[in-house]
Prior knowledge:
This protein is mostly beta strands. It has one domain. It contains no helices and 5 strands. A 3-stranded antiparallel beta sheet has the order 3-4-5, with no helix packed on it. Strands 1-2 form a two-stranded antiparallel ribbon.
Amino acid sequence: MTNKFPGFLRLPSLTYFVPIMEVVWLEAKGNYTLVHLENDREVLTAKTLGVWQH
């Protein structure tokens, strides 16, 4: 997945970009990834954890 905005994580389930510095960790949830953000926020994306490794 190509990201045109370095320093940001593009989350397709949201209408905005999340700064990478706000990402605490990524958790595999079957065919989904749960993105844990600062301030105890979480976002579930319809991408596997492997997609985020590239």
